[in-house]
Design brief:
159 residues; mainly alpha; 434 Repressor (Amino-terminal Domain)
């Protein structure tokens, strides 16, 4: 009986496929988003909360579940409320306690759901580089140029 409980505890919340729980993946992606926005490395974040950068990587991928006390530590170091990690949760994630129900939501089609472009590393790096431009007139010209290039691309696609 004890070994069955131990085996079950080790798999708690993880689908039979071995994939990470979608909630853990979302929370991890929010940790990565905030860390990247702050320009903080995984190593620095790990040092701040007493972990190795490999453990931070596992949290960010959703491979390891983040406990309540660790989530609190992360919110303090990353200077966000704990609720930040649950913001923008995809609609397909079911919060019920029934594992079958929760994992059934993973298999539902998302209707062409596109990941948030603001969560992409490329976007974050672009925004950080943009705000490193000290001259506001140069920044404004770059902004206008970017909009013009984007508009030109949409006109070409329409032709």
């Amino acid at each position: 009986m004890q070994t069955a409980a131990r085996g079950r505890r080790g798999n708690a919340g993880r689908p039979k496929t071995g994939k990470p729980n979608p909630i853990d993946v979302h929370v991890g992606s929010r940790v990565r988003l905030r860390r990247t926005l702050l320009g903080m490395s995984q190593e620095k974040l790990g040092e701040a909360i007493g972990l190795t950068f490999q453990q931070v990587q596992k949290y960010e991928r959703g491979a390891n579940r983040i406990g309540a006390s660790r989530l609190f530590d992360l919110s303090r170091v990353l200077d966000v409320p704990v609720s930040f990690f649950f913001d923008d949760m995809p609609a397909g994630v079911d919060f019920s306690d029934d594992d079958e129900t929760m994992h059934a939501a993973e298999d539902k089609p998302t209707g062409g759901y596109e990941p948030d472009p603001m969560a992409k590393r490329e976007t974050l790096e672009l925004v950080r580089a943009y705000y490193r431009i000290n001259d506001s007139s140069v920044r404004k010209r770059l902004f206008e140029l970017t909009k013009a290039v984007a508009n030109a691309g949409s006109f070409e696609a329409a032709e």
